[in-house]
Amino acid sequence: MDLMALIAARPLLLDGGLGLALMVRGFGAGECPEEWNVSHPAEVEDIHRAFYAAGSDIVNTNTFGGSGLRLEAHGMAARAVELNEAAARLAVGVRDREFPGRFVAGDIGPCGKMLKPMGDADPEALRATFAEQADALVRGGVDLLNIETMFDLTEARIAVEAAASVAAGRPVLASMAFKPAARGFRTMMGVDPASAVATLKEAGATLVGCNCEITAEPMAALVPILAELNGGVTCAQPNAGQPRLEDGQTVYGETPEHFAAVVGGYPALGARIVGGCCGTPPESIAALAAALGR
What we know:
two-stranded antiparallel ribbon; alpha/beta
């Protein structure tokens, strides 16, 4: 997959919020999302199908929390390879049967633990768990690897290095979760965009971008900063509004029309890969596809 050639020709559209899509289909509190790849495969396939049908060029596998270290919380660390391979095969299967020519990204999120000395996660154990996950996704048939929602630059660097070591030439995207701060955009751990791009590109990332934490409008100010640091292009996935509880359910208030109107302007700012993060349904991706002239 020659990612840079593809995005030079036209912007690529990612999918939206997989967590929301799972909840709509009955996913309950305390369940393991990655376990649904084997216990509810038809539901996971339906999520991928919905985003492809909405216009996504790339869908993410259902593996955001699929590293062995993160699966420990569900007592499923020993099933990391099984669950990641299953996730990749589900997404690839839907693509091959119904949407040939599209792509599948192997999704990798943070491990959920703090690195030493602030926490108890060992850097080498972290490297091993990310390499195991990335390798399982590659063997499952993904076209690229997507490391996202990172706050800690050391963890992000280890994840990128581990993924690049098994990617076998596949592109590696890396996105950090920034918010506006007094001295510009920063992650929760104080990482600035320039440090993130320099460190993660050196570690092997094809592109360094942003996702989560903020909505479309504040992210629009971040996109050109990251694009310039990357040499002209980046990737971006804002949340579809900020979550709130209504009758015990988490809802996001941003309409598909507003989401599309703002994010549809991202490619002109340098984001050649765009999509949605938390709370983004297929309807918002369909509206974005229309805004991009699909």
